[in-house]
């Protein structure tokens, strides 16, 4: 979302219809890329709202998509073992990835077995460098959530990670359990072809309204407002509860909302 542009906000009735619409759009976008002979790189989000999307994808009929051309990464991860119930990887794996015909070698979870999370961040950056050419990865789609405090991925208000401009992945502290996280940095998020925010629930309404009202990022503004790809697009997939405080003349309603 560039400064001065009306945000692309797509409002749906509730969290279930939001997940259904996003799942349809995601499969269509991946399918178009695969049909065109190109691969598709996707970074997954954690959290309740993306979880509903993954469950929808996991229960969908078999897809004709060439999953062998899809590379799956994560935007952030809690520094817990992969079998931990708090793991973003475990959530996506159980809800969706175990049911999809994606080759295991195309699924790249963030490592959490290093004694030092900074080493884990460096290892994940090395993994990404093996899949992306150039000075910064360009994901086809990055899925993000939005916290009630305005955070996205594991970029929390006041975090030193927000100032990172050279590394692709860093270890970060969160004011939540568990406190240690790995996260992609703003240079990676802002180099994406598409960023899709998934936001649901009335508790997110103030943060969503604040982020979308900002004409430009502020040093101490909500971290999500700093996600503005220079050569990409941002779509806000939201439900009516999250959109309750919005007054956007250019808002795009969903077919059910």
Rounded to an integer, what's the Rg over CA atoms?
Answer: 17 Å
Identify the strand order in the major beta sheet: 3-2-5-8-9-1-10
CATH topology: Rossmann fold
How much of the residues is beta strand, in percent?
15-25%
What general form does the structure show?
A: globular
Percent in helix: 25-40%
Give the helix/strand class.
alpha/beta
SSE pattern: EHEHEEHHEEEHEHEE
Low-confidence regions? none
Q: How many distinct folded domains?
A: 1
Tell how many strands the DSSP assignment holds.
10
CATH class division:
Alpha Beta
Termini, distance in Å?
23 Å
What's the architecture, going by CATH? Answer: 3-Layer(aba) Sandwich
Explain this structure to me?
- With 257 residues, this protein is an alpha/beta fold.
- The protein has one domain (11-196, 206-233, 240-253): 3-Layer(aba) Sandwich (Rossmann fold), CATH 3.40.50.
- Helix content is 26%, strand content 18%.
- The chain is built from 6 helices and 10 strands; from the N terminus they run βαβαββααβββαβαββ.
- The strands form 2 sheets. Strands 3-2-5-8-9-1-10 form a 7-stranded parallel sheet.
- It is globular and about 45 Å long.
- It starts with 7 loop residues before the first strand and ends with a strand.
- The model has no long low-confidence stretch (mean pLDDT 91).
How is the secondary structure organized here?
Layout (H helix, E strand, L loop, with lengths): L7 E5 L2 H21 L4 E5 L3 H12 L10 E5 L1 E3 L9 H8 L21 H13 L11 E4 L24 E5 L6 E5 L1 H4 L4 E6 L5 H9 L19 E7 L12 E2 L4
Parallel strand pairs: 1-9, 1-10, 2-3, 2-5, 5-8, 8-9
Antiparallel strand pairs: 4-7, 6-7
